[in-house]
Structures
1.
Amino acid sequence: MVTDDPPQSGRPSVIMMTPEQHRQLESLAREIGDHQELCKRVYKRVKVAKDKVATLILSTDMARIQDVLKSGEKGKYPDLFREIMNSNPSTGGPTADPDQVSKQADKDSKNH
C-alpha cells in the first residue's frame, strides 16, 4: 500500500489562516523546493468557511514546521508559517477530531 503522506505517530493539529495566507500557501505548494510536498499536504486539507481558512497539519509536518521556526530559518515558507503561528497560537494544538478543521473555521467566522 502506498500513501501520499508520511507515517504518523501523533495527532494532527488545526491552524487558522487568513485568505491571503491561504493564497500564499497555494503558491508555495506549486513552487519547487524542499518545502513543496509539506505545503501541498497542508493545502489539500484546507476547509474554508466565509472569510476563515482552517487546515489540518499532520504531526510530522507540524514537527518540521516547528523545527524550522525554532531554527530562525528565513524564506517564504518559514516566514509564512511564522506569521500564521504567531497570529493564532492557540489553534495550533493537537486534535483528535479531523472534523475540528471545519468546526474551527465555522466558529471563527461566527465570532468575527
2.
Amino acid sequence: MYRFLIYIFTFSLLNLSCTHFEKNATVAAELQEPTIDFAPPEITSIAHRGISAESNSLEIEFRNVKTPDELEALITRIDTNYAAIPDTEKFMALEISLLKPFRGYNVTLNQISIGMAGTDLLKMTTGLDTTNWKKNPVVNSYLADKKVRRITKRDDVQEHLGKEFVPRMNKVFRLVAQLTSKTYKTEFCQFSCGKDKTVSVMQALESMALTNAKLSFQFAYKYNGIFNIRKSSKAVKPNKTTESTDTDPNILTIPHTEIELKSQTRDVSSAFGISTQSGVWLKYAYDWYKMYISLAIKNDPNKAPKLAQAFFGNQQHVYQGNPILINIAALFDKPNPDLKNFMASKFDEKSKKPTEWDIDSYKAIFPNIRSNDEVPTYVNALAEYFPGGLPFPLQVVFKPTAVKAKK
C-alpha cells in the first residue's frame, strides 16, 4: 500500500502573499486548530486501481445497527481500528465516522432553541449535504438522541463545530487522500456520487476541500447572535416536524427583506462581527480554497481559466456582458470588521427598498464600483465568480441584495 499523493496542479501558482495572515500566529484557546499538513508533492502520475471488491462486512454491520448506542459503538470501532479495515470499506467507514460530533445534534439545538434544525444549520454554514443522513432511520435517531447533550447554550453552537467537526473533517480528508483505489462505494453521497452509489476519490477530495474551506471561513465571523432574531409566530408558523423547534423560526430560515435583517442585527455584535481569531481562520480557509481549486482543475482542466487566478487580487469577470473587476483576495487579506457593513445603509421610506450602501466597503472587493445602482449587479457577479459559491455568512448578508438584482 502506498500513500495517495494529491496532484497539486496550481499550488505554487496560487501562493498569494497575504500580509494580514502573517501578523496572526495564535489560535483561540476555545477552538481546536485545524491541521493542514500537506507538503506540496511533486507532480506525479497516479495509477490507482479501480474498485477491486464490493464493500461487504462493514456495510452489513451498518445495516444491522438498530439504536444510537449501537451506531456510536460502530463509530468508536472505526476510529479505534481504522487501519485494520479492508481498503474497499475504508471510504464508507470514514463517512460513518463523520456522524460522531452530531449525536443528539438536532434535538439539542431544538432544546436550546436556535430556531432551526441542526442538520440545516450544518448545511448552511459548511455546505455539507445531510440529505441522506435524514433519510436513514438509525442516523435520524442518532441525531435526535435525547440522552446526549453536547451543546448547552446558543453561544456554544459555533464553538462546537470548531472543537468537534473541524479536526474530524480534516482527518477524514487526510485519510481519504491515502486510499489506494480510484473508486469506492458511498453510503451518504455527501461528497459526489454516481448512479451506482460510487464515488471517485478525486471528486470526493475536491468536495471535501470545499467543505473544509467553508467550514474555516465561517469561523472568521461571529454568528451566534443571529439565533436570537426571530419572526413573530403570528406571521410565520413553525414547521411541525421532528426536527423543528417549538419557538419562532430563525430569521435565516424564512424569507426576509434586507431592511428586516439590517434593523434586527444592527446592534448585535455577535451577528456577523469579525472574530478575534479571524486572521488565523481566514488563512486556513484560504489554504483550503487553494486545495479545492487545485483538485477542481485536476478533475476538470476546463475550469482552469475561471479558477486558477481567482485569488490573484483584481480579476476581471464578465457578468451579463459587463466586465467587472473583482478582488476576492481582499476578503481574506483585509476582511471587513463587520459584514453588516455590506448591508444597505438607507431605505426608501415607503417601499422599504434599499437605496444606498457603504460604497467604501464595496470598493475593497470591487475597485471600480462607483454608484449605489451598481451594487446589486456587482454582488451577483461576485456570487457567480466566487469558487464553490459564496461561503457563510457572506451568502446571508449579500442574499437580499442579489435577489433585488435578479428581479
3.
Amino acid sequence: MGQPKKKLSVEQVLELVDGLSPDEQERVRAKLNSKSKAERWEALCSKVQSQCEALPPITEAEILADMKEIRNELKAERAQSSH
C-alpha cells in the first residue's frame, strides 16, 4: 500500500507559494481564481439580463438603421484610408 497523504496547513501552502517565482505565483493565483466556462457564461448572461431589464425592446427597424449607419461609417473609413 502507498503512504498516506500528508496534510498541509494553509500556512505551509502559503510558504511554498512564497518560494515560487513570480510567474509561478501568478499561475497559482490564476488557477485559484478561475471559474469554469459555464460559471463565467452564466455570470455574463446574468449581467447582460440585469442591464437590459430597464431598457425598452429594440425594433427590427432600429436594428437595420443602426447596421446601415455602421456600414456607411466603415465605407467612409475605407474610402479615407485608400487615398
